[in-house]
Amino acid sequence: MTHQLQLCLLFFVFTSLTHAKSVIEPCNTSDSCPSLLSYLLPYDSKLSEIAYRFQVNVSDILAANSIDPVAVPSLANQILPARSLVKVPISCPCVDGIRRSVSTAYTVQAADTVNSISDGFGGLVSGEQVRSFNGINATNPLTSGESLAILLPCICFNNSNDRVAAVYLSYVVRRGESLGGIGQTFGTTVAELEAVNGLGQPGVDPGDILAVPIPACSSANLNWYNESLIVPNGSYALTAANCIKCTCGPTDLNLQCAPSGIVPSCSHLQCQGSDLFIGNAYVNHTPIGCNITACVYRGHNGGKIFRSLSNSSNVQCPVNQSNKAVPPRASPSSNPIVPFVILSPSPSPSPSPSASSNPTMGMNNTNPRSKQTSNTSTQGSRLPGQARLFYILLPLELALCFIYIS
User: Fold this and answer.
1) Helix 385-405 and helix 2-17, axial crossing angle in degrees, nearest 10
2) Torsion 379-381-386-391 (CA) sign
3) Could you write out the DSSP letters of every residue in 22-84?
4) CA-based nearest residue to 22, from 158, 192, 172
5) Nearest to residue 79, comparing CAs of 42, 49, 118?
6) pLDDT by residue (tens digit) across 190-214?
């Protein structure tokens, strides 16, 4: 009987560990919200191929990773090496009461298996999820040329983290990584990662998918007409038919908008009654500070771009500025090709991952709101789906064990 009990408990432990943990966010609204995927390239890929794989625009990937499209017009054909880490922006609808993103454009290739498909998506979807969601079994095997639905993790939490605007990144844990190393990479703390993901202890396993909060700039308080934007810090967004580029950070959470330079014929960029264009400012030094007149973006409607002059008196002066017009803020990237993409040193990650050993494309280490403590009151609502399933199945499995023994 002792041997039977050991076998039963071993089965129980094995079944509780066979599925990676991930956050499941319940929802009850049809509104979509922005989110990010951390995609570790399984093989060399063009940006256009990555965009096609996830059904997003190349320009959106460029924006999420702070790559300036003006510098290299043919950037869509730029080849990124395997094991580069790329941020992929997605929109999260509410599907059957759960926040998730569904891609329906993956076409099965001749040599595909559910596991190779999982690998192709960087582990963001498991082979078992591919199998179960598409009804793949012995009587309904994978068929070359068929189209599969791929469920991708999607977390929003109302795009807020402790009442600060945030965009959540779904990050696949790699072998040898810890919460401390992941937190260091993204400028957050172990306590915050535990709270957001509902973890009872600071332990993660390879394949787990963590929700990582990325502080963001929001247009909620900027009095824009008919438009709103949430932009993760260290990235930008294009708006107004790509005429306007709005940048966030990376060292602050103030949204800065200026002409993008991508579209050659954009009108309504100059503020009336001045020689300032959107993103320009005139600085006048005073004995106690500076008076600043700026031409600011106010949203758009159809082909019209709204803008207005904003006046600030006796505020802190910009660094190294005299009485002159200040040009729009430059692109957050100083490298026009791939400002943050670097190969991992080897396929085998370091036992002690850090920001320097796991460099990423567009994943800035600077978190302007990094803190040492975190509000843990949300752990109940953010308990990983696997953890909830674990506690539901625990009594049933134990009961079956004792029935088996008797």
Assistant:
1) 160
2) positive
3) B---B------EEEEEEEE-SS-EEHHHHHHHHT--HHHHHHHTT--TTT-TTGGGPEEPTT-
4) 172
5) 49
6) 999 999 999 987 789 999 999 999 9
